Amino acid sequence: MEKKGLLIVISGFSGAGKGTIVKKLVERYGYSLSVSCTTRAPRPGEVDGREYHFKTVEEFENLIDYNGFIEYAQYVEHYYGTPRAFVEQEMAKGHNVILEIEVQGAMNIKNQYPEAPLLFVSAPSAEVLQERLRGRGSEDEATVKKRMQRAIVESESMDVYDYIVINDDLEECVEQVHSIIEAEASKTCHCAGFIEEIKKELKEIGKE
Ligand code: ADP
Ligand code: 5GP
């Protein structure tokens, strides 16, 4: 039976562990991960097409004009957007697609795909969040401070999400996110095809 895949939005504070969780979900359960376009410069170690598709502002604005994004947002002076073609193709194949995006993008997705679950990942406390940002070693102290300041603003949007996921023990957290997605996929609204099919089969057998 053909079943359309789900869109799953994962947002959260920088340093909460989103990237780590998503990587494990993709490896373990084969979720599709949407690679966004951005106009920000690649960070050391980032590869074009793997972390992001890196674009000039002109290229990005052309893609906007051609309806190339299912959502896009400006975040800290740069554009970020979710390419439409990949997401639509994957969903049509029945694959569940994860979008790791910030809050404006999450709201935009909710408006277009009301059935898409929105998950917000947090560290268990502000202190642990700060430790993780420092421990990651990719930011200097001034950037850690900026990210902690941004977390204050982002915390104002937490209550619009469907799920708050507390990333304390990593393994438990990965399993929790997977369970949420499985439960979402079992919602009646995603099972119309199966319902029709089983009704038909029951009638066929009933005739015998
Ligand atoms: P984000 O993508 O949300 O910015 P990362 O996935 O880069 O966060 O994680 C930030 C840091 O915290 C990384 O060094 C990562 O290894 C670490 N980390 C992630 N989850 C946990 C966890 N449950 N316990 C301890 N450290 C974690
Ligand atoms: P970073 O520059 O640290 O990689 O990402 C900055 C923020 O942009 C993160 O919160 C990340 O989740 C978000 N982001 C990444 N891709 C997209 C996207 O396609 N759309 C939106 N709206 N946000 C994105």
Please describe what this structure looks like.
The protein is an alpha/beta fold and 208 residues long. 47% of the residues lie in helices and 18% in strands. The strands form 2 sheets. A 5-stranded parallel sheet has the order 2-7-1-8-9, sandwiched between helices. The protein has a 4-stranded mixed sheet with strand order 4-3-6-5. Strand 5 and strand 6 form a beta hairpin. The longest helix is centred in the last third of the chain and has 16 residues. The radius of gyration is 19 Å and the shape is globular. The relative contact order is 0.20. It binds adenosine-5'-diphosphate and guanosine-5'-monophosphate.
Measured distance between first and last alpha carbons: 23 Å
Please bin the fraction of helical residues: 40-55%
Mean pLDDT: 94
Order of helices and strands: EHEEEHEEHEHEHHEHH
Shape type: globular
Largest sheet: 5 strands, parallel
Q: What structural class results from the helix and strand content?
A: alpha/beta
Residue runs with pLDDT of under 50 for 5 or more positions: none
Count the beta strands.
Answer: 9
Give the spatial strand order of the biggest sheet: 2-7-1-8-9
What is the number of helices? Answer: 8
Note the beta-strand portion: 15-25%
Radius of gyration: 19 Å
Oligomer: single chain
Q: What ligand species are in this complex?
A: adenosine-5'-diphosphate, guanosine-5'-monophosphate
